[in-house]
Amino acid sequence: xxxxxxxxxxxxxxxxxxxxxxxxxxxxxxxxxxxxxxxxxxxxxxxxxxxxxxxxxxxxxxxxxxxxxxxxxxxxxxxxxxxxxxxxxxxxxxxxxxxxxxxxxxxxxxxxxxxxxxxxxxxxxxxxxxxxxxxxxxxxxxxxxxxxxxxxxxxxxxxxxxxxxxxxxxxxxxxxxxxxxxxxxxxxxxxxxx
Length: 194
Fold this sequence. Notes:
Blueprint: H1 5-17, H2 20-23, E1 42-44, E2 47-50, E3 55-58, E4 64-65, H3 68-72, E5 80-87, E6 94-101, H4 102-105, H5 113-126, E7 130-139, E8 142-153, E9 156-167, E10 170-179, H6 184-188
Antiparallel strand pairs: 1-2, 2-3, 4-5, 5-6, 6-10, 7-8, 8-9, 9-10
């Protein structure tokens, strides 16, 4: 499986936390963090399902789910867990579901979904990508905050949508990245929509 993940997906998370507390003005401290990893989703055939996130994703034809060993090899940092990664081996386009224990990653600071998406948006903008939209999107029965960005370099175009929803002390993140001819909306349609 191609390793374009390091460039886009991990960078998203790094940008998200840099300066979150300082930018929000008033720091909101939370209870001591719970440190248990959310229940891992399951892949059965062409479908990934997470009962914790209440997400179902059916991979497009020709796409490949990363193995548990490949996911374990992604360096994401303490408190960040990749639950599913799926990629188009021909184009490098991909989708990932991640769980982040925000009280561990940004240190006992309560962060909202809006603040989380704003931080991701600023980080991606500062890395040279154009922010196209910030809006609410629905996956299954749950509402997510989202940001979509676009960029071009030589013969490469990229569109990325990052979605976030908070459940307890865990931020559920869905990141879809479409390169060149792949369509971001087609990737997002692979999640069960109610």
